[in-house]
Specification:
Helix content is about 85%, strand content about 0%. The radius of gyration is 36 Å and the shape is rod-shaped. Pfam families: DivIC (PF04977). It comes from Tindallia californiensis.
């Protein structure tokens, strides 16, 4: 009779191990999916920021395209990029700032 008990005890242990493993599998799956969901949300958030940034850049480029032929824009770009001045203007150069560059 002692042998029978050991066999049934062993089969009960195996049964409960299988039941526990089957019960833990959905929990593990849920946890894995939750991690993936968080990663995807983070990627979506990052992509959304990039889209907004690119939309702002597109808007700035559209504005530039619309105003590129205007005299004020051309003058502003010449002053800013080429450091051009009018004939009646003076140019003041900060020597300390030039040395630091």
């Amino acid at each position: 009779m002692a042998r029978r008990r050991k066999k049934s005890s062993l089969s009960r242990k195996i049964f409960w191990i299988v039941v526990i493993l089957l019960a833990l599998n959905p929990i593990r799956t849920w946890y894995t999916q939750e991690q993936e969901r968080r990663e995807l949300e983070e990627l979506h958030h990052h992509a959304q920021k990039q889209v907004e940034s690119l939309e702002e850049e597109i808007e700035a480029l559209r504005y530039t395209l619309e105003h590129i032929t205007e005299d004020e824009y051309i003058e502003a770009m010449a002053r800013q990029n080429l450091r051009m001045v009018r004939e009646d203007e003076w140019v003041l150069v900060d020597i300390q700032q030039r040395e630091n560059q």
